[in-house]
Amino acid sequence: MIEVDLHTHTTASGHAYSTVDELARTAQTKGLKVLGITDHGINMPGGPHLYYFGNLRVIPQELYGVRVLKGVEANILNGQGNLDMPERILDRMDLVLAGLHGDTGYEGRSVEDHTRALIAAMENPYVHVIAHPGNPAYPVDMEKIVMAAKRTGKALEINDSSFRTSRPGSAPRCQTLAKLAAKYDIIVAVNSDAHFHTQVGQCDIALQTALDAGIRPERIINLSAEYTLSYLEKHRLIRTRNAV
Q: Which end of the chain has the lower number of beta carbons within 10 A, N or C?
């Protein structure tokens, strides 16, 4: 059972239907210790204004006994790994997911374009997790992606929603990703991508996919709250050191 869900959305995303409070209450009832609030970046149609992210500090660090990570699912804009969020805001975030989404300004068309964009995003010092890299709408060279994750120490997501309601056709690509992740012993995150509070912590298909592929439990960063927080702190320290 996971202790952390690193990918959830509130009404601020424009196409999700629960509040921060509702997500946190559900996380508590499901036994989660840490909850990532990762609404879409500002280029998402109907999504949050930049002020939303600038004001996340008003949300308590803990709700109903659950640690709340204030984050974003940023949109990758190009092959240079640029995101739709200014660095001054990214620097305040506890957690940054990055992924490819339609209608957000990304213009890549080929497997090579998408692969280059995800690799560049992994090299972005603010990014912690690549969101739903198994999305068939943006096919990538999975082996190159996994090798880049190994080199950068970044986590790739196995997204539970991709098996259920989002991104049809993702399952085979997610299974390939999981097998390569096991082969190269990289770290992954299994997340709900909840857009309604009852989905929080719903990661059983993604988790079973990871385990069936041979990914060692200790390589799944959000099985343990301690592991999640140490992973985020490690990358914060790396970014701070490199900025000096």
A: C
What is the C-alpha radius of gyration for the chain, rounded to an integer number of angstroms? Answer: 16
| pLDDT tens-digit readout, 45-100 | 999 999 999 999 999 999 999 999 999 999 999 999 999 999 999 999 999 999 99
User: Whats the size of the chain, residue-wise?
Assistant: 244
Decide if 38 contacts 8 (C-beta within 8 A): yes
Residues 6+ apart with CB under 8 A from 44: 13, 14, 75, 84, 101, 103, 104
Side-chain-side CA neighbours of 73 within 13 Å: the count stands at 27
Number of helices and strands in the chain (H, E): 9, 8
Collapsing DSSP to helix, strand or coil, 40 comes out as: strand
- From residue 13, how far is each of 10, 68, 101 by CA, in Å? 6, 17, 13
Q: Are 240 and 234 in contact (CB under 8 A)?
A: no
Span 149-205, pLDDT tens digits: 999 999 999 999 999 988 899 999 999 999 999 999 999 999 999 999 999 999 999
Q: Which residues does 234 contact at the CB level (< 8 Å), separation at least 6?
A: none
Q: How far apart are CA 232 and CA 112, in angstroms?
A: 29
Burial 186-201 (b: 16+ CB within 10 A, else e): bbbbbbbbbbbbebbb
| Alpha helices, H only, 6-160 | 20-29, 50-54, 87-90, 111-123, 142-152
